[in-house]
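Quick log. Single chain, no ligands specified.
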Amino acid sequence: QVQLVESGGGLVQPGGSLRLSCVVTGFSVDLYAIGWFRQAPGKEREGVSCISSSGDSTNYADSVKGRFTISRGIPKNMVYLQMNSLKPEDTGVYYCAAARSYDRCGRNNMNYWGKGTLVTVSS
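-> predicted structure:
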């Protein structure tokens, strides 16, 4: 079974930056699309960004477009989310998750989930 472990969360001031990391292990992990999701207190989990197995295709939620960047490292089992110009509404637990297809990169379609890392944006 595929395992995902997030890291890089913490406390940051509005306008600041953080880089989240996701390490993916298991069978043929470099063949999976990887998505980032977040959940604020009392709210539903929402999609943030997704990247294809090759790294050639990406997508972003409108709320983070132009501020966040998703990328895959070398080897491709390392996935990053660079977050710039952070806002208080970006606060939440951030999860990475794996899907067998980039077309299925959505909250209800992922095959495997990490445990999450907390991001708090506050002055």
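The longest strand covers residues 18-25.
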